[in-house]
Amino acid sequence: MKLRVKERSDAMCGKGDRVIRIKQRQDVTYLPALISLYLIIGLTAGRKVSLPVGPLIRVEGEAVSLLCDVSDYQGPKEQEFEWKATQASKTIQVVSTFDTMFPDQSLKVRVHANDISVVRIKENAVVLMIKEARVNDSGTYTCSTPSTDSVISGNYEADVLLKVIHDTLVVVPEVPAPLVHEGKPINLRCNISRDFTEGVYLSVTWSVKKDQSPEQDLLSFEPNSGVTIGKNFTQRYTDGEMYLQLDNTGSYSVVLSGAVPADQGIYVCTAKQWTREQGTWNLIQEKATVIGEVTVIPTGDSLTIQVLDNTILNEGDSLNLTCLVSADELAALDLEVTWLLNETLILTHLSRDRVVANTSDIISLNQIGEGEFRLKIHNVELSDEGLYSCRVGAWIQQGRGKAYQAAEKVSAPIQVVINQQDPSLTVTLKSPLIAQYAGDPTELVCQVSNISNYWGKRLGVSWYYSTSNGSQVVTDVIASLNENGAITARDKYRDRIDTGAVLVTRIEPATFKLRLHHTTNADVGEYVCRVSTWTLTRLGSWKYTSEHQAHAIKVSFASKAPGISVIARHKQQATFSGSTFEMNCLAKLKNLWDGMTLSVLILVQYGVGAPSRKLASLSPDLVLKVEDWYESSRQHSLNLIKTGNMEFLFRIHSVQMMDRGFYYCEVAAWTKPDGNNWMEITKGESNKIQMNFEHRMPSFALSVTSDTTSVYPWETVKIDCIINVSGSSNTDNVAYEIRWYRSHLRESDSFVLLASMDRLGVVRKSPRNDTSDCSLERLTSRTFTLTIHGTQDSDAGEYYCTATPWIRSRTKEEWDKQPEIISERVFLRVKFALWESMKLPLLYGTCTSLTVGLVSLILGLLCSLCCCKNTSRTPHPRIKLLSKQTD
Question: Which residues form the Ig-like domain (predicted)?
């Protein structure tokens, strides 16, 4: 669209006035659309200043903050702001971000005191802060920004209405009882008053502070009349144990119907005032007041239990025991009473619903008064004797029929004694068969006689063995036969009883027998039997009532006791670390019959007074067993063999410093009385042999050998680095680090590292620029081979190796590094092979020449045959020669 402007004079407009006339062509119809587009762009684009949507209600004394920001502006990023307030028809300047003289005279004191301030939070946003609002601060606040735009568009200021109301909120709590018994209610009352203001809503929150724990909310009455329950009190609110009470007088109460010890603490009531701004609740005032501290007295603190009445009775009497229960608020408790015998057996039980369990004509339980419960047992018997106690559980009712056990206590037990007449028992121990020699059988019979009132009773027996160890008598239990006839064997005799070498039997109701099939030297001593009586109780179980002991019988051999004397001797003394130690053990038998088989056990003491350690043993079946040997890797160094009928040889290869000590043998004689299992008859211990030598460190030397010192290119060379050790033959505790070096010239000190191997066997090679390659491997424990593959001229030179020994210390965990050892040098020469280098080129050239000549000959022959094949058929014409003149 094109516009033309024409100036003309008009008398109606006055002389000199100019009238601008717009003429349009055919496209003048688009002018309204264009104008509308300009209006839309003008309305949607440009600077925009924003404030919260009002009106805003605040309480005097509380802080007020008004956020103002600007967007879609031009100019510098950081914008300046000015705040003004309009009250009635008067507008005053409040504060500015760039002009310190901007505030009105009436506000300068508050601005200088920082009660009124403007805080920049972003380049395009500031907050007007009023620390303590006043009622006369109410009014319309305007936030404006100076123009920095090239074109004026949008809005440059925004308004919000602020209303500051008087502080009329008053919170007055009613102090609850400071001490509350468990199960009683806790009433938390809070009285709240305020002046009504439209748009302002009230909420109330109850909370508790317990010891060092953070404050927990119980219940909140929200501004929208809803109720929010604290996460730790949801179940109690659901069960009706916590509820809210409201009235029209401004009284708000939360009641905990059944207090528990966990409820004690400091309770706080918090009142809050809210406003609804842009669909969101905004807190404008909060006041919290302590209601009071409540201590809950646990039921268990006051619960006491005592058992009264008679405790010494005769058989057939009636037992009467009273359980006396006392506690604070006893009437509000539901009691559960249980009578116990010997702390575990439940005699009878009274539930909190007053239902009695385990009652009969003999046992009864009744409540005879408040907190008094009587147990009565008619016609007591010996099995009723014991410790009686009363266990009481105190239950407290909660909401909706629920109850919980608040406390449980057990009274101190009282001893009830039943007088009885001991049964007239006579126990006699007889010995129909006594061993005369080791290996003979022995039988002992325990006879019970003069049994009175045996009806309803059973007998058991226990067999005991005693021996004198100097001035001390040692007694062991062999086995016991209980009232049901079951045998209980002790550890020392369990194997012999399980195999039948020792028998414990009842041959008659009142007669018991102990039989040793093969009596050994260890069985010599005194034997005794003890008979116990058992009575059947009314509960169907057997109870121990008495015990009677017979006189002891001594078992000994008619001849001298068997024995073994053992002598240990040096066969080869260890003189240095790595040498071999050998010890002979020679046994001599005393008073033992033929057919004995020997076993041997080697022991060592690593110091004077040190405990003995088992090293190796050879069983009667000649099975070698390594016992408490400290190194599993050295088990092959230990050897124990039988070299004769009564002789054994013990050997340690490659001894170490840690092996020094006192060595001795223990030889035992065995027999198979039942043909299946070995039984030890006697044993003896030898003298001690000392192994002692000075520690000598091994010495090391290196030697270098090669399969050849002169090679042709592309051949393989092997050079061995051999470590020679003297002073110790043990290589298990030695490891080596190996390095190979090379120099291109003789007698040169410029060597380069080719390859290395650490003491763990990890190989590392240096980078190479040659076409040849090298490798390092360990052939034996002390031989390390360097192999050069595809030898080149650059591999010629001197070679040598170094070794760094590492020796493992006595602790078996630490390795000691030794000085480095350097070998002699060996020179490798790579020969120049003239014929080898020329034979291939000569062969290739000869073959090529012969091939080219043969091909040329064949081609010439073929060409001659093709060109001369028609000569006989077509003779050449004869042409006369021309004369010189004609030519």
Answer: 32-153, 173-271, 298-411, 423-556, 698-804
Whether 585 shows a pLDDT value over 90: the answer reads yes
Cα 107 to Cα 116: distance, rounded to the nearest angstrom: 8
Ranges assigned E (strand) in 470-612: 472-481, 487-489, 502-508, 511-516, 525-536, 542-549, 553-555, 563-572, 581-590, 597-605
- Out of 691, 721, 756, a domain closes at 691
- Amino acid 129: pLDDT: 93
Residues 6 or more apart whose Cβ sits within 8 Å of residue 199: 57, 275, 276
* β-pairing verdict for 710-711 and 826-830: parallel
Q: Which of 364, 389, 419 is the last residue of a domain?
A: 419
Query: Is 875 within a domain?
Result: no
**pLDDT tens digits, residue range 669-683?**
888 766 677 878 888
Asked, for residue 869, whether it belongs to a domain, the answer is no
- Tokens of residue 690, six digits: 């000392």
Residue pair 347/356 in contact by the 8 Å Cβ criterion: no
Instruction: Say how far apart CA 71 and CA 781 lie, in whole Å.
Output: 84
- For the stretch 117-130, pLDDT in tens is 999 988 889 999 99
Q: Are residues 672 and 649 in the same domain?
A: yes
Q: How far apart are the C-alpha atoms of 272 and 224, rounded to whole Å?
A: 12
What's the Cα-to-Cα distance from 666 to each of 11, 563, 602, 617, 764, rounded to whole Å?
A: 152, 12, 6, 9, 53
285 in a structural domain: yes
Q: How many CB atoms lie within 10 A of CB 384?
A: 23
Position 812 scores a pLDDT of 53
Write out the residue range of the structural domain in which residue 37 sits: 4-44
Please give the span between the terminal C-alpha atoms of the chain, in angstroms, as a whole number: 102
SS3 276: strand
Measured distance CA(739)–CA(823) in Å, rounded: 11
Distance CA 368, CA 376 (A): 12
Whether residue 726 lies inside any domain: the answer is yes
- Are 353 and 369 in contact by the 8 Å Cβ rule? The answer is no
In terms of domains, do 140 and 189 share one? no
pTM exceeding the 0.70 threshold for the entire prediction: no
What is the distance between the alpha carbons of residues 504 and 516, in angstroms, rounded to a whole number?
9
55 shares its domain with 111: yes
Do both 652 and 615 map to the same domain? yes
Q: What is the pLDDT of residues 440-495, one digit of tens each?
A: 889 999 998 877 655 667 899 999 999 887 778 888 999 999 888 889 988 888 88
On whether both 605 and 664 belong to a single domain, the answer is yes
Phi, psi angle pair for 314, to nearest 5°: -105, 160
Q: What are phi and psi of 76, to 5 degrees?
A: -65, 155
Q: Are residues 384 and 412 in the same domain?
A: yes
What CATH number is attached to the domain comprising 718? 2.60.40.10
Domain count, the chain: 7
Q: In 3D, which of 520, 514, 525 has the Cα closest to residue 466?
A: 525
Q: What is the pLDDT of residues 814-855, one digit of tens each?
A: 788 888 999 888 888 888 765 566 677 788 888 988 898 898
**Whether 772 contacts 828, CB under 8 Å:** no
